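User: Teach me something about this protein's shape.
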Amino acid sequence: MRNPSMAIGIGNGVAAGALWGLVFLAPAVLHAFSAVQLSAARYLVYGMVALVLLLPRWKRLAPRLGRAEWRALIWLSLAGNLVYFVLLATAVQWAGGAAAALIVGLIPVVVTLVGAREEGAVPLRRLLPALLLCVLGVLLVGYEAVMSEHLETPWGRRLLGLVCAFGALFSWALYSVGNSRWLARRPDLSGHDWSLLTGVATGALALLLVPLAFAGRQQAHAPGEWATFWAVAAAVAVFASVIGNACWNRASRELPLTMSGQMIVFETLFALAYGFAWQQRWPTALEMVAVGCLVGGVLLCAHAHRAPAAIAEHAG
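Assistant: First, the predicted structure itself:
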């Protein structure tokens, strides 16, 4: 790829997607635990790890953080972490992992449509082929999920799960746009530091979930189940939250919003791959076509962002 910055951004976007795909697997593995328990445990660990990693640099960072930054970190933590993961985990457990991945897979469309309105963005007409391919891929995966997965689940609960998935979609889209703008607003703060600061804010907010998540529920599971629960929660916190968020912030800084929005497609692809591995099955022919559409959409979007073509199109 001729643009090193875009290559770095895409590489980090793919890495973030691979790590974030684990988020869809954890609720399936820990199906006996509630979404609130999963969220509280994951983000308590995230907050503690982030705090330990920030301590050596705290004296240098603290003077550069004002009230506006902390307010932003709090609402970004709610939208992109706590609210998003509670809704997503509920969707996975009630509507199925593939259906949840399908709906959240629409995030690239939402983010790209928002980014296309920003000054200097690639015109929307150049992005339409990529968006249409992504939408087609998501619809194909959705059709397969609706026809084959969780048919024994009561329709009422399944419908609520789908509603939660759409809630997760809009919550994370809000986070993605807001986070990208704050990274652009504060170039003096590295993407990794911003991710760790978000982790500290998220961990503090997660403390509010502890009474709701764990009070009076210790007897509901065996000690071995709790050990597995905390091990999975810690793994998701470190790989998806600490490392994955750092990769995503680097991608957000290197790529325009219309392009970074497309990178979220890889979260859907990896979530599906992990789900297939957990279910011990190969994807169906329809699911393979859907994956091809999603990957093709991202490649078309990268092609639309080639610097000379984008500048010429914008000038025309």
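Now, about its shape. Residues 307-316 have pLDDT under 50 and may be disordered. The CA atoms of residues 71 and 261 lie 24 Å apart. If you'd like, I can walk through any region in more detail.
User: That's plenty for now, thanks!
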